[in-house]
Input
Amino acid sequence: MSGRSEQIAARICEAILAHRLVPGAKLGERELAEIFEVSRIVIRQALIRLSEDGLVTVERNRGAFVAKPSLAEAVEVFETLTIVEQGVIAQLGNRPRKSLLTELRGNVERQKAALAKGNEQLAGEFGLEFHDLLVALTRNRVAIELHAQLKRRARLLEALYRCDFDHCQLCDEHEHLVGLIDRKQWTRAQQLMDEHYRLVARGYRIDDEALPMQPLHLALGKPAKSSSATAGRRKGNDRDTHRTTGGEA
Amino acid sequence: MSGRSEQIAARICEAILAHRLVPGAKLGERELAEIFEVSRIVIRQALIRLSEDGLVTVERNRGAFVAKPSLAEAVEVFETLTIVEQGVIAQLGNRPRKSLLTELRGNVERQKAALAKGNEQLAGEFGLEFHDLLVALTRNRVAIELHAQLKRRARLLEALYRCDFDHCQLCDEHEHLVGLIDRKQWTRAQQLMDEHYRLVARGYRIDDEALPMQPLHLALGKPAKSSSATAGRRKGNDRDTHRTTGGEA
DNA sequence: CCCTGATAGATTGGTATCCACTTTGCAGCC
DNA sequence: GGCTGCAAAGTGGATACCAATCTATCAGGG
Output
């Protein structure tokens, strides 16, 4: 049982990345405290963790919300991903781990197979995994964690500016990229990576159709005993609102 | 007065970066709470912030310590800095902002001047600033913040594996780098950046001479009323230790 | 004498209340 | 109709406690 706030931050993070919590959703301390059956302070600590990660914004005295990056910031996130992966390509010159390219090739093959079977969902997963594998080639945990953080933020953007990707072309570019790396054409590979991410970014469109905002307790996958039923006999969270006891229900 | 824990995290961060708090130093909640005259909870939140940033490690039930990265991790941090800046160089091809190179040139000139005057300290500052300016050329706030975080971790390493740098050579390489960028020789520039950081990393040596560990209240620049004097009449933090009231002081 | 186990102290993790300050929505007033 | 003032709600922080855990000390046995 180590680190309640860490666990809870992970749970909320997962819910955000799975788009069960949409950008802009209010993350009320009280509500979350009831859902996870912990005190508000633990929730606050979890929210601080998430805000440091960029997935949540905390507005003083107003509360925490799932981050809702502007289109400008979205572009910056993708650009930064490009920067990191271009840098990784530059580093690959120093480590001629031929064998590791097979991992990338394997990933491309798997994505191709998924596409052949028409499984867009799975193909998308493999498409994301490709970039992880690329960074993993550095065997640099700091870089890997940095990249993972950026990817979380990119994943958040999916929920805001959703659109469809041309998985076939993306996969082709992956294959092409592996070839360039194999032939040590670093500059070409970096250019391709840049174009690749521009293609990804073009896949995003601004659609302001109201995002489906489901209640927190559903998004966070808790049984969510109906609020009034639990309010009376819960083993005792912060019952701060004694002023409202005569109130609603 | 917004965000007490944020302010405190900033203060501690600054003390760590200035090497007033050395790696491995214990950051006791009670002690910090007394120094900053806040409750332990606010301190804990500040420590969570710092741990997410990588400057502090929190060991469950043991407390928080200034991070003490292994040599392996130190190498990874520098390598990641290299990756990011190589990626930035790759991006520079897309933005031919000729005018912005003048900023880099100006920095190089300032560092040269500082070296001519024998001011190693100032030269070191300019040397660090060069890399900030380089990343700033992207005008990408996400990338800039990412880079800043990495630099904080690198700054922490200085305290652990301190050594002397050949500022002259580092400055020469900066100048050379600007020339390569100007001539759009991206691959050469990236190679130079890699060598540059290897030179920086070589400047670090492992010296296990006991690090000068000054008391927290001095490191954090508080008047630090002597502990016993304040213990009696403090306006009231977490007086958790009622068990010791009959004790020592 | 050294090693091992018990025990007490100190520290952290978490809970329960309470209070202060902001924001916000609404009602009444000009 | 727009503005002001008040009350409700919610966050930020403080206080007080408790449980779990780590640590250091000390006693006993080989």
